[in-house]
Amino acid sequence: MRIYIARDYKDLSRKAANIISAQVIMKPDCVLGLATGSSPIGAYKQLVEWYEKGDLDFSEVRTVNLDEYKGLTGDNKESYRYFMNTNLFDHVNIDKANTNVPNGMAKNTEAECRRYNELIRSLGGIDLQLLGIGRNGHIGFNEPEEAFEKETHVVALTQSTIEANSRLFDDPDDVPRYALTMGIKSIMQARRVLLIASGEDKADAIHKSLFGPVTPHVPASILQMHNNLTVVADKAALSSCGKELEDAANKEGFYVDL
Ligand code: F6R
User: Fold this and answer.
1) Which residue range forms the structural domain that includes residue 143?
2) Which of 26, 134, 210, 228 could be 192's S-S partner, Cβ–Cβ 3.0 to 4.6 Å?
3) Does residue 188 surpass a pLDDT of 90?
4) Residue 20 to residues 101, 106, 137: CA-CA distances in angstroms?
5) What confidence category does residue 194 fall into, taking pLDDT thresholds of 50, 70 and 90?
6) Could you give the CA distance from residue 105 to residue 103 in angstroms, rounded to a whole number?
7) Residues 196, 232: contact at Cβ < 8 Å?
8) CATH of the domain at 218
9) pLDDT tens track for 229-250
10) For 138-164, what is each residue's pLDDT tens digit?
11) Does the pLDDT at position 258 exceed 70?
12) Starting from the edge strand earliest in sequence, which strands make up the sheet with 67-69, in order?
């Protein structure tokens, strides 16, 4: 596990964008696993800036997003498809046909989940999966559970997630109660995982995920088992990890950029 400590959100976004752009430069037709939410907005903005300067080319890049709300069309401004278009895809030279988000409007959600799993397989798997983290340790919409869910599935969102996400909706009652999400197995099969976290409200989740026991009650804790995990977090998000970070800096298998 490599941990990079960012000064603030701006620094975090730049570091994350650097890692993503390195992937695109090294493998121009790479498969990027992408996330929505507040955490990656700054990184996407930075990527757009570098693209505009002529430093990045997305023409061959393929993408698969982690999740989508059930019942929202792609042109609904709260949908994750809309988020991806407006924050990244509309501003770079990516071929939209190569961008994938689960279809929240699919009549048969089970079939849609199977299609999405097949799609990830047919792309040859994910080269770099970008992840944010929920305050309860969720990744994608894999909420705390008794067992890890493996592949793409439908989830009932927890109250904590509904509340956290209601800030993005005009009316909190409009927050969908269900979503389609990639499962833990799909995420863990990515060749590289980049987890980003900003702000003190993520401190507890980050502490438990990076240094606590591996448990489905803290879904992101499974990332400790990934052999190519990079964490970029700001000081606030790492504020509960002080001692563990110092210890980790001297442990085999860890690199901590203190
Ligand atoms: C979004 C996603 C979620 C978010 C998480 C953190 O595609 O998969 O797991 O990454 O809820 O959200 P923010 O970044 O808004 O704090």
Assistant:
1) 27-230
2) 228
3) yes
4) 19, 30, 23
5) very high
6) 5
7) yes
8) 3.40.50.1360
9) 999 999 999 999 988 998 888 8
10) 999 999 999 998 899 999 988 888 988
11) no
12) 67-69, 178-181, 153-156
Residues in the chain, overall count = 258
Q: Across the chain, where does the E strand assignment appear?
A: 2-6, 31-34, 62-65, 67-69, 99-100, 128-131, 153-156, 178-181, 192-197, 229-234, 255-257
Q: Of the candidates 106, 90, 3, 103, which has an alpha carbon nearest to the alpha carbon of residue 44?
A: 90
- Structural domains of the chain, count: 1
CA dihedral 125, 1, 131, 103 (to 10 degrees): 20
Q: Mind telling me the catalytic residues?
A: 67, 136, 138, 143
Which of 66, 82, 184 to mutate for ligand 1's pocket (most ligand atoms within 8 Å of CB)? 66
Ligand 1: centre distance to CA 74 (Å): 18
Say which residues have a Cβ less than 8 Å from residue 97's Cβ, sequence separation at least 6: none
Q: Establish if 10 belongs to a structural domain.
A: no
Q: Using CA atoms, how far apart are residues 104 and 71, in angstroms rounded to an integer?
A: 5
Residue 225 in tokens: 């088992």
Q: How far, in Å, CA of 172 to CA of 169, rounded?
A: 6
Report which protein residue has its CA nearest ligand 1's atom 11: 134
Tokens of 116: 């999405």
Give the dihedral sign, CA 234/236/241/245. Answer: positive
